[in-house]
Amino acid sequence: MPDEPTQPEVRIFNASALLEISPNFENHRAAREQVWYGYSDGDYWGAIPFVSELFRGQNKRYQPMLPSIVRGLATNTGGALWERSTRDQAKVILRLAQSWWFARELDYHPITSHADSQKLKLDRIALAQHYGIPTGYLDLTDDFNVGAFFATCHETRNGWEPLEEGVGIIYRVELKGLENPFGRYEPLGPQLLPRPSEQCAWTAELPIIHSFDGWPGVMMMQFNQQRSVGEHFLSKFDGGRALFPFDPLAEVADEIMGCHEIPTILIDRAIESFASDPLGIRPDQIGEIRQQLSQTITMVDYRRLLTEERVSALLADFEWRKKMLSNVKVKWRLVRAEPVSVEENANAGGSSKAPDTLKGPAA
């Protein structure tokens, strides 16, 4: 009987290896501010910090590493939503509606009108992902130390604490080796929203059934947790507080995810979007999906969460206005962020592109 093939041994490092890398990024944030380059995109423009690598830290590995909108589903039958259970269909539709709710709340935030007055692109769904709303995106950072913080610490009722056991992982993406890195990865900037700015945030749009582990340019480093290493990164970011500054958008996201309500109009539009998508749902499934939704969430009229009082408090803060609403200054370079095509994504190992319904906010 022939020997069965053996799996390659996965090397697991000592967590102290992170401490050896950390000093290389000590001055990263100051340097980062100098490398934002603007590019034209139709009537609007965007900007990209020209960094060579991105990171994602997790205090344990998940396989497959999927976008948050399809995590935790009971059925795994492929890329089409119509093949999944009614409960899973309802869950994905609800998550899409929640991301659109957050996108609509951005209409009331001063940063939105400020960006629009400058014709500066603002990806609302990418921001929803970064504030904790499930979407078709994945969070990344261009600061290794931020990634290491999330890889070595975990959030508790008493705040962030270091881990002392288990296996953590840091993903590293080498951008300079990719043919079209800025079509696949997008920075959340240069507008200075507090949380994305402090976390040097980027996002990547993932195919809905393809794991991040198999993407081009993505490397992994697994390590055994060690309390002293977690304490190092915890202290670097003031116990985590530096990465989560006060931000009313964070409160809005928490309310959306915790209120067990959803505006009916957003559910209706999410259902319509998936019903018109080949990978979405079939018309004959809509009735059962609505019934499932009615058992798990309360439908309400649209209501505003980012209230006038919250906005007024921001605008009354002179230092906040000076920092957040100043004119964005970048260098200019002949570069354009192009979307990744279905064919290119398939060649990269993905079996389907995320439907457009997972990205854009409701009109």
Short recap of the structure:
The protein is an alpha/beta fold and 363 residues long.
Characterization of this structure:
There is one protein chain. The protein has 363 residues and is of the alpha/beta class. The chain has one domain (12-325, 337-358). 36% of the residues lie in helices and 18% in strands. It contains 15 helices and 14 strands. The protein has helices spanning 16-21, 28-32, 86-105, 110-117, 124-130, 144-152, 181-184, 194-198, 227-236, 248-258, 264-275, 286-296, 308-315, 318-324, 342-347, and strands at residues 12-14, 36-41, 44-49, 53-58, 137-141, 153-156, 159-162, 167-174, 185-187, 201-205, 218-224, 261-263, 298-300, 331-332. The strands form five sheets. It has a four-stranded mixed sheet. Strands 3-2-14 form a three-stranded mixed sheet, with no helix packed on it. A hairpin with a 2-residue loop joins strand 6 and strand 7. Helix 3 (86-105) packs across helix 12 and helix 6 (144-152) packs across helix 9 (227-236). The longest helix is centred in the first third of the chain and has 20 residues, at 86-105. The radius of gyration is 21 Å and the shape is globular. The model is unreliable at 340-363 (pLDDT under 50).
Our estimate of the beta-strand percent is 15-25%
Low-confidence regions: 340-363
Total strand segments: 14
User: How would the global form be characterised?
Assistant: globular
Pairing-aware structural class of the strands and helices? alpha/beta
The helix-strand sequence is: EHHEEEHHHEHEEEHEHEEHHEHHEHHEH
* Major beta sheet summary: 4 strands, mixed
Q: Rg to the nearest angstrom?
A: 21 Å
- Calculate the mean pLDDT score and round it: 85
Q: What is the CA-CA span between the terminal residues?
A: 62 Å
Please indicate the count of domains.
1
Counted by DSSP, the helix tally is 15
Strand order of the largest sheet: 1-11-8-4
Q: Percent range for helical residues?
A: 25-40%
